[in-house]
Amino acid sequence: MQELIRRSEAIERDAWLDLYQHAPAPLLERLGLSAVERRGVTLLRASNVDHFLLNRAIGLGTWAVPTPETVDAVVEHFVERSIHRFWIHAGSHLRDSELLRLLTKHGVIRYHRSWMKLVRPSAPVSEAACELAVRLARPEDARRVGHIVARAFDLPEEAGPLFAAGIGREGWHYFVAEQRQDVVAVGALYVRGVDASLAFAATAPAARRKGSQRALMAARLKRAQALGCSHAFTETGMPIEGQPGSSYRNMLRAGFDELCVRDNFAPEGARWQSQSSSDAIAKSVGSPTRSIRLPKAEARSGT
């Protein structure tokens, strides 16, 4: 089980690293993208977009021991650029008082929604009924794909191209669903060796409830199987009472099994919010209700 968890973390990390490291230079500069490793933790940062999805720490407790020095370095990496909405991912086995104490010292607490990591061994894939036509994405779909993903995740429009940049690139396999020849949904697959990640997916609001995501999931699983992958991994937010859980249900229907719960830690008071306008591309987009504290020995202002 632990080996599968490590593989799940690794393929997710590598998919995001690939997006950041191969971003076109103008986009990299516009969003302030960087991807580095500190003390065994992979740190994804978008200095000019204060949004959880683009500012994340992966690997705490998987490859990195959560020592005071490690936690200090991770938190500082975001705070030094005035980023107020970031996630520090940590496995459920790290729900110990020492980790909580180290994070709380910086005003970082458990986010209200954890993620479920899921796994599917290679096995026959059932057909998924869908009202829309599903096909591989083409380069000319990039603008539409970026728009759909940005809107679905409440990102500024300028961040959309990051999620379309993998179309046609080695390791990436994008599928889209069309409605009257208009792309209305997308699902991305990232493959490395025998592991595959259903990296992200999104549907335009007007095209929901037509079976597109189930069909896109089936298409990606078939592609992974054809490429010789032994396992497919994915993740989604834990179901919360009163909120839609369609992604989670679709994953279970597609044959995925629960692997583990991964907690997300974020600055106290930080909330998910829409950043759909160009004004969101700035050094600081709003702020949480409570400030984040840098380690005293290393505190410095952002530049």
Structure write-up:
With 303 residues, this protein is an alpha+beta fold. The protein has two domains: 2-116 and 262-280, no CATH class; 119-261, Gcn5-related N-acetyltransferase (GNAT) (Aminopeptidase, 3-Layer(aba) Sandwich). It is built from eight helices and twelve strands. Strands 1, 2, 3, 4, 5, 6, 7, 8, 9, 10, 11 and 12 form a twelve-stranded mixed sheet that branches. The protein is globular and about 55 Å long. It starts with a helix and ends in a 36-residue tail after the last strand. Residues 282-303 have low confidence and may be disordered.
State the assembly state of the protein chains. single chain
CATH topology of the largest domain: Aminopeptidase
CATH architecture of the largest domain: 3-Layer(aba) Sandwich
Please state the CA-atom Rg, rounded to the nearest Å: 19 Å
Structural class: alpha+beta
Fraction of helical residues: 25-40%
Give the count of structural domains. Answer: 2
Helices and strands, in order, run as HHEEEHEHEEEHHEEEHEHE
What is the straight-line distance between the termini? 43 Å
Main beta-sheet strand count, sense and barrel state: 12 strands, mixed
The strand count comes to 12
Any low-confidence stretches, pLDDT <50, length ≥5? Answer: 282-303
